[in-house]
Amino acid sequence: MSPTATHDEIARFNFLANFNKYMSNVVVAGNAVAYERRVAPHWRAQHGVDPANRREIRAAMSADAYYQLWSALRRSGMEMRQQAGRSLVLRQMQALRDRARELNAACAATLRLDNSIAIPPYQSELDNHCMPGSYYAEYIDDDVSAAANYDAGMFATTTGLFGRYLDGAGRGTAQWLSRSRPGWQPRRILDLGCGLGHNLLPLARAYPEAEVVGVDVAAPMLRYGHSRAVGMGLGRVIFQQANAERLPFEDASFDFIYSTMFLHETSHAALRNIFGEVRRLLAPGGVQLHLEQPPYRGMSDFEQFLRDWDCHYNNEPFWSALHETHLPTLLAEKGFAQADIFETEIHAIVEDEMPKVATAVEDFGRGGLWYACGAAA
Amino acid sequence: MNELDLQKLINAAASGKRPHFFGDHDVDRLLSIVWAMAAELAVTRERLDTVERLLAERALLDRAAIDAYRPDGAAAAERGQWQIEYLSRLLRVLQQEVDALRREER
Q1: Global pTM?
Q2: Do B9 and A83 touch (CB under 8 A)?
């Protein structure tokens, strides 16, 4: 299902991938140096104390020439990644759409679109991570270009850390499930905010007998994701257009419910509704798991400040609030027993030839290592 | 959709205010152009590298022929089209600013 890329289009992504890697391996570290050597001393001279939290650090750093240049380069890189993806994909959007239609028709029963599903305001008010048109813009009938752009460009922003098929989080999740419940066979599996199914397909491979369902509000992602799954021989995976706050499934009808990097793209009110739905849908003996970037608690103010960059400058409006939310408490409020709630870490599982994440160079939100919170029913 | 309309769609901005990081906002704008140019220079360098390696593999490179080359009409038109896309890519930030102003007008 991939778009056909010319030499220069590939070269453009090569540049962006290398630029992102260079930024995270080399350039980002200069911010801490600038902070310690000149920004914090200047703040102390003015205020008599150190900056008290990440907000004061941001206020102080905003006037620093190094931070300004790093930020402007990073923002430019985000915009250029979108431009590069769109120039690759939009010129062939009809051909991609036609190919998706053909593949989708081969397994029509497992692509379940519902045009009554509205894009929730927390998605429609701002284009997520500077993606023009976000996940759902449609320029032609049955458009898949938003998903094709997301798929094509993600490798450049994650520089291989999520794996060749960008499914490192899903593979990590499947491994976690098989290790924490050896021999257990979930009958039905649900991925919330599955997008184009990067992290949905590994669960289908790990549990060939299970009914595997991904839900998302964005039709282009589902069309493209379903066609991609069909192309990979996984036409049995169900891609369903639905809002995770109000799901069209019966009570206690799923054994494993999970999400990967989804919760931070919802609002706090939505998050409560989503956890309420998980409570309703999880069958007795089932389990849920949600992968996210790590919460801010326990981090230095400076690290919080760096991780918070995306909230302010990369259209991630709920990023800060989610990372300050104590997910175990929220699950307990929804009725999960304290003893059944847990927190863990999930590593991306990627091909041998792919780079592996080292915690030392984890790129403040883009490394292949996640915090996870879950609960058994 | 004609070529220029497609190029404008490709260059569309994400919704939300574009942040400024420098005291002088013109510096943000200039950096955006310079950095897009840096990327295109890398792209060109990679292409040239491919060409040189392929020619070297085949023992085909005649450097005098490069200086003597004159494009015909079709080649010149292709080059012209490339220049339009190239400039549109470099000046994306200006297009986005004008698009935003137009939206405000409405």
Answers
A1: 0.89
A2: no
